[in-house]
């Protein structure tokens, strides 16, 4: 897996709580929700870099993924 950048992000507590609830509704972590929203904003603005990788899948591998 490619290296991931770590950043410190300061948020208003009410904004964080709203993001956490939204992430929970979509079965994501708060961190994954923030990355999802940032990527969507970059894409909508036409600023998503070509070199940006896909968001790594988390959780169990699907049944079609095998290491045979």
UniProtKB/TrEMBL annotation:
State the InterPro entries in the record: Arc_rbn_hlx_hlx, Ribbon_hlx_hlx
Region entry Disordered, spans:
47-68
Lineage top rank: taxon: Bacteria
Q: What is the protein name for this chain?
A: Toxin-antitoxin system HicB family antitoxin
* Species name: Amycolatopsis minnesotensis
């Amino acid at each position: 897996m490619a290296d991931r950048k770590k950043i410190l992000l300061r948020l208003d507590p009410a904004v964080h709580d709203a993001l956490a609830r939204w992430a929970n509704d979509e079965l994501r972590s708060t961190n994954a929700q923030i990355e999802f929203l940032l990527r969507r904003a970059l894409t909508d603005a036409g600023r998503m870099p070509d070199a940006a990788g896909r968001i790594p899948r988390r959780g169990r591998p699907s049944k079609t993924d095998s290491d045979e």
